[in-house]
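ENTRY TYPE: paired fold submission
RECORD: A
CONTENT: sequence, then structure tokens
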Amino acid sequence: MDKHFEKLKQHCKENSTISEKVIDNFLMDFVAEREGSGKLMNQFTQKHKHIIRQMPKEFFPRAMAEYIIGKTFMQNGLILEYLNHKSIKALDEESTRFLNHQSEHPWRYCFARITDHPEKDFFVFYDEFLDDEFLLYSHGVEAYFESNHENSLYFMLIGFNGKCWQSFGVILPFRSFDADDIYFYGTEVFSEVESDETLMESVYKNPMPYFMLGIGMEHPVTVNNDHILRQYFAVDNVGEIETDKLREDFSIHWNKDVYRLTDKDLSGPPHFAKAYFVEKTGELQRHALTEFGFTELSRVLIEAGVKIEPEENISVSLTMLTTMEQILKRSIVLDHFEKVFPDKIENEADDETLERINHFMQGLLPYINSGEKPDIKKLAEQYDLEHETAQGIYDLLKSKGPHD
């Protein structure tokens, strides 16, 4: 090992030792008792029990510990209220020095990706929401890295030891979620989320809903014909459209004051691209299941003279939608006009197959996480899938490994 990292590793180990002494063996219970964390824990358990019971038994206690310590050491955290408490003042000099240092260097939550792995247990991370890089020391990340999570999006709480950052508590590496997925989830859970800044504020306000995303962290990226499948959505106020001109490129259907525009090359699998124009409001919506489909749909509309921005407003993966529906116990619908047109677009049955696959994955994950072997044939029949397709999905998920 490089001498620089040798010295740094020693410093990190010393920090871990004092952290265990002060945080694990004293501060955790001290803060929990004074903040009524037992009552909060019961509230969280009741609200999220349908997820908690599917996770490893140590998951929720560790998440609760992280919740308490996050509230303690975050910017303007509880530590500032307790530094002058007689119990803390009675600690030895090393312990009080440690706590004072933490109060001056707030801990942070992050959604970050690995950009470098210079030494064992050391990683350079890029924070997707704060747009910065930091050096992290973490045994937990090393274990995930070695189990093929090198490209995952990590959610974790980290603290600064004076020379680099160290992780604390639950580490969640998401295989298929990205920053757009996290942002969309945040907007569905917290009404105040409208920017990266307010997204992170919601995490500090209550990280528990974000911990629950752990139920979907092993979901693989959903791909069809080399296209990553995501829901792309955009809405623009265009006032009006020239339907006669658009008929040169689109098949147009009308019902209940809404026009549906589809392109024969884009409306089928895997893209399922379509647009809706609402006569009463002058609103144009675009939907697609692939980036290519959305980009091409937008290009054709713009070339036909429709004044829209080419970018999407929302991009969210199918795996995130499946996970959200499981956590929130409700359907997440982006295409509200689909019911206005009950007739199926050509090949739309494939869309239904994708939905069955997502539900099958949702039913399969508890077995993967617990290490139990499911009856694939029985599950395939339950979710109306071909046995061969179901077996292939199981083999893929199993190869990724359970929650660590």
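RECORD: B
CONTENT: sequence, then structure tokens
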Amino acid sequence: MPQERSWFIAIGKLPDIRIARTPPAHLQWLPMSTTGERFERAVAIMERLRAPGGCPWDREQTFDSIKPYTLEETYEVLEAIDNRDWEELPGELGDLLLQVLFYSEMAKEQGSFSIDDVLDRLSRKLVDRHPHVFGDTKAETSADVKRNWEALKVEERKKRKKEVEAGAAEDSAAGKSAPSILAGISSAMPSLLEAHKLSSRAAQAGFDWPDMESLFEKLGEETKELREHLQEFPAPGPRPEGRGVAGSGRQIIPEELRARLEEEVGDLFFVLVNIARYLAVDPESALRKTNRKFRRRFQWMEQRLHERGSTRENASMEELESLWQEAKHQEKRL
């Protein structure tokens, strides 16, 4: 057995092992000869952290307590990709992989599944969804792959339909309703992503707008409905909340009207998500990039005001708008 392999196995057994960013010389990482050994080392470290005598914080965690970190790490991966920060991305991907190892270790402890089950399912899915690579199906271009994928989905739907019909017959006899086509789409995900998945799943069942023009018509319809509700808005009409203490200057809006306005704004978002879907644009990514663009430009404005000895509070709207336009021009020159 290679020396590094022996050391790697021992790491999970030493009661006083500590993994630090810069470990002592006698605990420096020894080179692993294969990807598999590297993966097994990470699994063993996770197991050691959760074991008796391991890390108190890691041992206290549950599926629910780890969920927020999973979302946070996912967004940090996306941010590194958006920034084209290839030096940072491996670390962020490692943090995301840690979430998978964490869930798998906790599941193994309670006897639900293990990391082996995760890897087996992944491998089966990759093989099943790529018959042009692992089977006899032919696909020379990405368009061929897409056509094959659509055919696979048709077959999967037929199989699922038979299973659903069989289950529905049993459920009907037991007084239960058939499962929804939207089942399995988590309501805990970001709302833009959830809207995208809901509309995509509905489109698979034939419930979709026929073309982009229909979507723009729907956008106009929803905008009109929102404007109609705004006619009931208390005088002097909608306006930004005042500066100063949070909540000061807030307009009093009847709760029933507020609920209708919220619904109409939500409808507008849903139509915009479907426009993005038609254009093959990820709405979450698109809005995130716009948020960063706004942050970048606004901070540039703040810096210019600081150089002038001024502040946001003292600047007029005309001065802020002029700086905003200048910030946009600055970016175009880069």
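NOTES ON RECORD B: The chain has 13 helices and no strands. Residues 294-333 form one domain.
STATUS: closed
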